[in-house]
């Protein structure tokens, strides 16, 4: 059986223990969560979980059915179209040759986030697959640290 990438947006009541219960659904079936972001929805009693996972279609369907059954779950959106974005921070030593860096940053919605006497930190926000490509392109600048944030999702 082939492994498929799946994105799931879950709206839940903003209460303690919900995240543990949801991650337990995945762990209990031997599935990893590749990316997970959680944030409260402004002016509401809900939070949105954006989950990226992969696996067998049949098991993922079971997980989604269980998500629907959880008491604090308000809504599960696992099909349809999403706007999906991810962020990455990359630390590059200042002694590197930065020729071409500006063009790469512009191509991937990137910018300089911070700098000090030793390093420049660049930030990029784009689709997950484009972040992969950006990280390949930025290797020539010999980054010393990379932090990749999880995907955030919004249904269209």
TrEMBL record:
<dbReference type="InterPro" id="IPR002912">
    <property type="entry name" value="ACT_dom"/>
</dbReference>
<dbReference type="InterPro" id="IPR027271">
    <property type="entry name" value="Acetolactate_synth/TF_NikR_C"/>
</dbReference>
<keyword id="KW-0100">Branched-chain amino acid biosynthesis</keyword>
<keyword id="KW-0028">Amino-acid biosynthesis</keyword>
<comment type="subunit">
    <text>Dimer of large and small chains.</text>
</comment>
<dbReference type="InterPro" id="IPR004789">
    <property type="entry name" value="Acetalactate_synth_ssu"/>
</dbReference>
<dbReference type="Pfam" id="PF22629">
    <property type="entry name" value="ACT_AHAS_ss"/>
</dbReference>
<dbReference type="InterPro" id="IPR019455">
    <property type="entry name" value="Acetolactate_synth_ssu_C"/>
</dbReference>
<dbReference type="GO" id="GO:0005829">
    <property type="term" value="C:cytosol"/>
</dbReference>
<dbReference type="Pfam" id="PF10369">
    <property type="entry name" value="ALS_ss_C"/>
</dbReference>
<feature type="domain" description="ACT">
    <location>
        <begin position="7"/>
        <end position="81"/>
    </location>
</feature>
<dbReference type="GO" id="GO:0009099">
    <property type="term" value="P:L-valine biosynthetic process"/>
</dbReference>
<dbReference type="GO" id="GO:1990610">
    <property type="term" value="F:acetolactate synthase regulator activity"/>
</dbReference>
<dbReference type="GO" id="GO:0003984">
    <property type="term" value="F:acetolactate synthase activity"/>
</dbReference>
<dbReference type="GO" id="GO:0009097">
    <property type="term" value="P:isoleucine biosynthetic process"/>
</dbReference>
<dbReference type="InterPro" id="IPR045865">
    <property type="entry name" value="ACT-like_dom_sf"/>
</dbReference>
<dbReference type="InterPro" id="IPR054480">
    <property type="entry name" value="AHAS_small-like_ACT"/>
</dbReference>
<keyword id="KW-0808">Transferase</keyword>
<comment type="pathway">
    <text>Amino-acid biosynthesis; L-isoleucine biosynthesis; L-isoleucine from 2-oxobutanoate: step 1/4.</text>
</comment>
<protein>
    <recommendedName>
        <fullName>Acetolactate synthase small subunit</fullName>
        <ecNumber>2.2.1.6</ecNumber>
    </recommendedName>
</protein>
<comment type="function">
    <text>Catalyzes the conversion of 2 pyruvate molecules into acetolactate in the first common step of the biosynthetic pathway of the branched-amino acids such as leucine, isoleucine, and valine.</text>
</comment>
<comment type="pathway">
    <text>Amino-acid biosynthesis; L-valine biosynthesis; L-valine from pyruvate: step 1/4.</text>
</comment>
<dbReference type="InterPro" id="IPR039557">
    <property type="entry name" value="AHAS_ACT"/>
</dbReference>
<comment type="similarity">
    <text>Belongs to the acetolactate synthase small subunit family.</text>
</comment>
């Amino acid at each position: 059986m082939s492994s498929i990438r799946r994105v799931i947006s879950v709206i839940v009541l903003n209460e303690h223990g919900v995240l543990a219960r949801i991650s337990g659904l995945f762990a209990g079936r031997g599935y990893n969560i590749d990316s997970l972001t959680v944030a409260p929805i402004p002016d509401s009693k809900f939070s949105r979980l954006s989950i990226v996972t992969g696996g067998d279609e049949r098991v993922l369907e079971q997980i989604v059915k269980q998500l629907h059954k959880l008491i604090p779950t308000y809504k599960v959106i696992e099909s349809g179209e999403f706007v999906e974005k991810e962020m990455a921070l990359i630390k590059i030593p200042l002694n590197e040759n930065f020729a071409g860096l500006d063009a790469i940053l512009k191509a991937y919605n990137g910018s300089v986030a911070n700098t000090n006497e030793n390093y420049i930190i660049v930030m990029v926000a784009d689709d997950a697959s484009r972040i992969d490509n950006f990280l390949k392109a930025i290797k020539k600048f010999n980054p010393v640290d990379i932090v990749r944030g999880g995907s955030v999702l919004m249904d269209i």
